[in-house]
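User: Can you recover a sequence for this backbone? Please restate the input before giving your answer.

Assistant: Of course. Working from this structure:
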């Protein structure tokens, strides 16, 4: 076939396909292209509906969403901590994320001397633990001493989002 015949055949094919959405030799089946585009559109709509419903749930009850997030974070931290430390306590601990180490160091310099932002303070009835999740390290452990008769006060963070300290009373005799 001569060069001229090839050019004429290509021109004739282009004239026949004028106005159609197809590339000669590339996409032969427009039905397949339509099915793929329809599937992508349906998945996009389904994803949008799912995330919109989650957004509405959080918007209508933000405290419940925050509680669920905090609970999940607490469970994750405790699961990681249990890998490096034997925990026998049956009572649920208080878990707080450190947001301002300087305030904690002012309250109790010895216990919080190596604490960093992002560490976790895990308080059980009998002991307090400073845990660093990224490196899976226990930074410090201190017993909570209960002597019979006297009341002492110790400083500890109240919540994971609160950067101030609250006073926790320990009853002793």
């Amino acid at each position: 076939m001569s060069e001229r015949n090839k050019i004429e055949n290509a021109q004739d094919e282009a004239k026949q396909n004028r106005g159609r959405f197809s590339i000669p030799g590339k996409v032969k089946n427009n039905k397949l292209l339509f099915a793929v585009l329809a599937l992508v559109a349906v998945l996009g709509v389904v994803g949008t509906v799912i995330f919109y419903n989650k957004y509405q749930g959080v918007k209508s009850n933000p405290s419940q969403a925050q509680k669920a997030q905090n609970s999940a974070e607490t469970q994750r931290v405790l699961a990681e901590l249990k890998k490096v430390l034997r925990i026998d306590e049956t009572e649920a601990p208080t878990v707080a994320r450190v947001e301002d180490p300087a305030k904690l160091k002012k309250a109790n310099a010895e216990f919080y001397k190596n604490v960093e932002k992002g560490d976790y303070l895990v308080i059980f009835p009998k002991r307090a633990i400073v845990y660093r999740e990224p490196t899976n390290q226990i930074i410090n452990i201190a017993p909570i001493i209960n002597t019979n008769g006297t009341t002492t006060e110790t400083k500890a963070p109240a919540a994971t989002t609160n950067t101030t300290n609250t006073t926790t009373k320990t009853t002793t005799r």
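That completes the design. Residues 151-173 have pLDDT under 50 and may be disordered.
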